[in-house]
Amino acid sequence: MDVLILILQLLLLGYRVISLFNNYTFHWLVALICESWFTLCWIFAITTQWNPAVIQTYPERLLQRVEELPAIDLFVTTADAVLEPPIMTVNTVLSLLAMDYPSEKLACYVSDDGCSPLTLYALQEASKFAKHWIPFCKNFNVQVRAPFKYFSHDNQNDGYDDHSSTQDFKQQCLRMKDMYDNLSRRIEEACTTSIPSSRLEGEFADFSNTQRDNHPTIIKIIRENKKEKHSEGLPHLIYISREKRPKHPHHYKAGAMNALTKVSGLMTNAPFILNVDCDMFVNNPKIALHAMSVLLDPEKGQKEVAFVQCPQQFYGKLKNDPLGNQMVVLFKYIASGIAGLQGPLYGGTNCFHRRKVIYGLSPHEAEKGNMPEIPEKKLKQEFGASKELVNSAAHVLEGRTDSPNNDINISKSLEAANQVTNCGYEYSTGWGVQIGWKYGSVVEDILTGLSIHKKGWRSEFCIPEPMAFTGVAPVGLPAAMSQQKRWATGMLEIFLNKNYCPLLCTIFGKLHFRQFLAYMWILNWGFQPIFEVSYVCLLTFCIITNTNFLPQGPALLIPITLVVIHMLYTLSEYLATKLSIQEWWNNQRMSRIYIMNARFSGFIAMILKLLRISNTVFDITRKDQNNASSDGENLSDDDNGGTFTFDESSVFVPGTTILLMQLAAMVIKFIGLLESRSGNNNIENNNNGYGIICDMLCSLYLIICFLPFLKGIFKRGKYGIPSSTIFKSATLAFLFVSLCYTNN
Ligand SMILES: O=c1ccn([C@@H]2O[C@H](COP(=O)(O)OP(=O)(O)O[C@H]3O[C@H](CO)[C@@H](O)[C@H](O)[C@H]3O)[C@@H](O)[C@H]2O)c(=O)[nH]1
Ligand SMILES: [Mn+2]
Asked: Where are the transmembrane segments (predicted)?
């Protein structure tokens, strides 16, 4: 099928080229360019899917093989106590702390880019709750260790929990539920009663007179797992809000990740790092053991694998995926395909990293005996002025395996930790450039993963049963749109990055050729809108001006077969994944909507950045736990539950414009047809009947895709498209139609 579709595409291109030689028209040249790009994209997609691979892990064998499990530092990022409710972060943290892994090997660092006392308060309370929760989970071998999910109605325990019927368990469970309800009530109350920032006291005094983007570093050790005190055996828990000042770029999530890397380097310096966004939680408590099975594998794992990525899966899935953001089929085909190449792309969350790779080592350097002797001066240049940090980095780079934190007292590193999270600390160091999470793109994850693959490292997917992590997908169209827009912009930023353009990485670096094509497949999210929007404009232009869009005569069969086969083929993928036809259609439609609205807006944002008119920003996705988990099941299509909501954002302008353009084209065409009939002319002089029908069908297809927008035009409130957007779109559509006439 892949090849058949490719051949049809090539035939179409061939036809266009030949026709262009015979009779040059500008619009056929545009069609040729767009279709060439679509063909290229198809090549990106098929080479990526052709060698799928799955890795099987056996964690129970791991303990027989290694004497001592390595330490893991756990990173959680949160950035806004309103968009990301603290109770959500709390659940992420609790699920991490309660993993099946020796507690003394874990340390959890939470970065709060929102600088919110609420987050700190919530974590403090959570830490008290953890004293009861963790033993409960471990004693009864609970599977879901995020309490909100454990106690929610739709947790069926999936048969993974033991003991679930004993009396003792029932009692304990009720007690836990009580405590958790108490905890969430207290946190909720704190969130609703806002204390003026000047009246914060005690531990929270540091937050007085702080603003989101203007405050000193605040680091709080919420729990320290001190050996001598015979503590309760809970992991360390540390709160970090790095210093931010206006005019100092803070590099969004990448900056936060580097702050976490530096602070954890000073405090526990674990050789492995697990990073999880606050909207995800651990669903499989053994996941760290699974990941270590790969990373500690003596044959390949240790030498070649830089990171282990677990897929992003979501709970509370809306029926038939009306927003098209569950990415189930995508993960199945593309992701397992990439796993068979150089390995999955880094997805920003649910990922286990090797610290030395983050510190810039290549596989060759990391091999025993090849460890470079790095002079202290160079280390200082890269890691910055902190002596303590340089020492801890040297420890990692030399590949010493003794755990450095045996005698570490976390509180002692507080001063150094404050120094390294200073907003000026990274100036003229290697952070964000040679080491750490890379700066320069709002999809820092793909960029960072690419920089690692460029060095020649592999990565692996880890897909244990039950699934490793789960979380919330954006709820509502505006949130999903802003996420897609950010991704598109970020992909373009990566392509234009002089150090990490994938093409250069494969020519000058060690990025495998097919892995390069896989990266192009995803970077195409930024390019695709240019071609799709041009193609659609071309279609409209042709309809309005009575020119041919599709080939004429028998050649018309090429695009028709192509479209039909492609549709059946993608549909078969959905059916093979046990998804419904409705879901397939929703995903098709949403791709059009995302590409022509959000990703196109992302492209425009990139142009504005290049023109230095505005800079790109990381807009945080709004998270709504309740929506996703409780009512989620009942929502089905765009009519219920308000899935298709709109806001004032400009991302909705392109789509509304395209819709209006199609409507205009249809009306113009019909009037034209009526007139020509009454005038008893030849139906068209240069257009055959089938051609017109097919052009109109394409336009009709777009109208059906944009049906939610059509409804939105007539609705009010959040279900309606704001009149300002309609006005802008109508103006643009009018300009376009006039332009068609002047060029006719
Ligand atoms: O200035 C910022 C902005 C965001 N974040 C955190 O980054 C994470 C991801 O943000 P979110 O709004 O959830 O974005 P998503 O679109 O869901 O994120 C996807 O895309 C991002 C890149 O654009 C990746 O970093 C994420 O891991 C990936 O899940 C969250 O934990 C945020 O708290 C920060 O720490 N600081
Ligand atoms: Mn997210």
From this structure: 26-46, 516-541, 553-572, 593-611, 651-671, 692-714, 726-742
**Which entry of 113, 206, 279, 695 is annotated as an active-site residue?**
113
In CATH, which of 3.30.460.80, 3.90.550.10, 3.30.428.10, 3.10.129.10 is domain 70-404+412-473?
3.90.550.10
Contacts of 228 (CB under 8 A, 6+ apart): none
Could you tell me the residue ranges of all domains in the chain? 2-49+494-614+644-742, 70-404+412-473
User: What's the token pair of residue 27?
Assistant: 């619009």
Q: Which two structure tokens, joined as six digits, stand for 479?
A: 């949130």
Q: What is the DSSP string of 685-742?
A: SS--HHHHHHHHHHHHHHHHHTHHHHHHHH--GGGS--HHHHHHHHHHHHHHHHHHHH
What is the Å distance from ligand 1's center to 277 Cα?
7
168 Cα to the center of ligand 2, angstroms:
38
Minimal-distance CA residue to ligand 1 atom 31: 277
Task: Please report the atom of ligand 1 found closest to the CA of residue 252.
Answer: 1
Catalytic annotation present for 113? yes
Q: What is the model's pTM?
A: 0.94
**Predicted pLDDT at 327:** 83
Task: Give the amino acid at 178.
Answer: D
Question: Which residue's CA is the closest to the ligand 1 atom numbered 26?
Answer: 348
Question: How far is the C-alpha of 740 from the C-alpha of 366, rounded, in Å?
Answer: 61
Instruction: Give the relative orientation of helices 477-495 and 600-610 as an angle to the nearest 10 degrees.
Output: 50
* CA distance from start to end of the chain: 40
Exposed e or buried b per residue across 209-224, where buried means at least 16 C-beta atoms within 10 angstroms of its C-beta: ebeeeebbbbbbebbb
Is beta strand 236-241 parallel, antiparallel or unpaired with respect to 218-223? antiparallel
Q: By the 8 A CB rule, do 128 and 112 touch?
A: no
Q: Which protein residues touch ligand 1 with a CB less than 6 Å away?
A: 77-79, 84, 111, 113, 252-253, 256, 277-279, 348-349, 442-445, 483, 486-487, 490, 618, 620-621
Q: Give which of 176, 168, 175 is closest to 150, Cα–Cα.
A: 176
pLDDT digits over 132-164, tens only?
999 999 999 999 999 999 998 766 554 445 566
User: Is the distance from CB of 143 to CB of 466 less than 8 angstroms?
Assistant: yes
pLDDT, tens digit, 9 for 90 and up, residues 319-342:
888 888 888 888 788 988 999 999
Reported ipTM: the value is 0.98
Q: Is 647 among the catalytic positions?
A: no
Ligand 1 atom closest to the CA of 474, numbered from 1? 17
Contact 436, 382 (CB under 8 A): no
